[in-house]
């Protein structure tokens, strides 16, 4: 009985330690960042795929990919498409790599880096959920690196110096505020 009690105490201690490390990484990911980790709702996921119009030849980048839920959702629908997620925050990268490990998605690559420093010229489609100031900072890079015809989808936030080719209302709240999806062509 004492061995069982001893082992169960150590398991509880290790579990609590794991939870503390997990919380520390999450808190650290919120600090000193232009774009905190805020996942897209699962209701929104269903509306992203039709807006992107992905084919088997597509190369889809998720800039600020977070926990990778966009990538994993889209890869189920498009198993022959190449997906690349880029995020520089450790906590979301840890989550997306754990998900990748357990689900063995061969068509998803997760990159732990600042997307401003990564070459995104291979992208045919880009997904973003970034604040407006980050979107505006990103625009010169996109205009320089992207091939003509590349499609960018942004949830809720838009560029101030570029007009979307389409807009979709994702959610309309009772107070009249609309949560939108913006589609851009480069």
Can you walk through the features of this model?
The protein is of the alpha/beta class and 186 residues long. The protein folds into two domains: 1-32; 42-185, Vaccinia Virus protein VP39 (Rossmann fold, 3-Layer(aba) Sandwich). Helix content is 41%, strand content 22%. It contains five helices and seven strands; from the N terminus they run H-H-E-H-E-H-E-E-H-E-E-E. It has helices at 2-30, 42-52, 69-77, 90-103, 132-145; strands spanning 59-63, 82-87, 108-112, 125-128, 151-155, 166-172, 178-185. A seven-stranded mixed sheet has the order 3-2-1-4-5-7-6, with helices on one face. Strand 1 (59-63), helix 3 (69-77) and strand 2 form a beta-alpha-beta unit.
Task: Name a few traits of the molecule.
186 residues, alpha/beta, Rossmann fold, 7 strands
Quick recap:
The protein is 41% helix and 22% strand. With 186 residues, the protein is an alpha/beta fold. The protein has a 7-stranded mixed sheet with strand order 3-2-1-4-5-7-6, covered by helices on one side.
Indicate the proportion of strand residues.
Answer: 15-25%
What separation lies between the terminal Cα atoms? 68 Å
CATH architecture of the largest domain: 3-Layer(aba) Sandwich
* Strand runs, count: 7
Helix and strand composition category: alpha/beta
By DSSP (H or I, 4+ residues per run), the number of helices equals 5
Spatial sequence of strands, sheet with the most strands: 3-2-1-4-5-7-6
Query: What CATH first level of the largest domain would be assigned?
Result: Alpha Beta
As an assembly, this protein is single chain
The run of helices and strands is: HHEHEHEEHEEE
The share of residues in helices is 40-55%
User: Over all CA atoms, what is the radius of gyration?
Assistant: 19 Å
């Amino acid at each position: 009985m004492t061995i069982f009690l001893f082992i169960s105490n150590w398991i509880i201690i290790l579990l609590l330690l794991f939870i503390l490390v997990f919380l520390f990484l999450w808190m650290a990911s919120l600090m000193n960042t232009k774009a905190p980790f805020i996942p897209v709702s699962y209701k929104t996921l269903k509306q992203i795929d039709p807006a992107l119009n992905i084919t088997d030849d597509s190369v889809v980048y998720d800039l600020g990919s977070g926990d990778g839920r966009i990538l994993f959702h889209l890869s189920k629908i498009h198993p022959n498409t190449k997906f690349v997620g880029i995020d520089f925050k450790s906590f979301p990268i840890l989550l997306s790599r754990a998900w990748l490990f357990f689900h063995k998605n061969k068509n998803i690559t997760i990159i732990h880096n600042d997307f401003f420093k990564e070459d995104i010229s291979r992208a045919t489609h880009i997904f973003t959920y970034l604040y407006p100031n980050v979107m505006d900072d990103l625009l010169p890079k996109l205009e320089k690196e992207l091939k003509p015809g590349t499609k960018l989808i942004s949830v809720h936030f838009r560029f101030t110096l570029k007009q979307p080719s389409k807009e979709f209302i994702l959610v309309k709240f009772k107070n009249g505020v609309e949560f939108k999806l913006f589609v851009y062509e480069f």
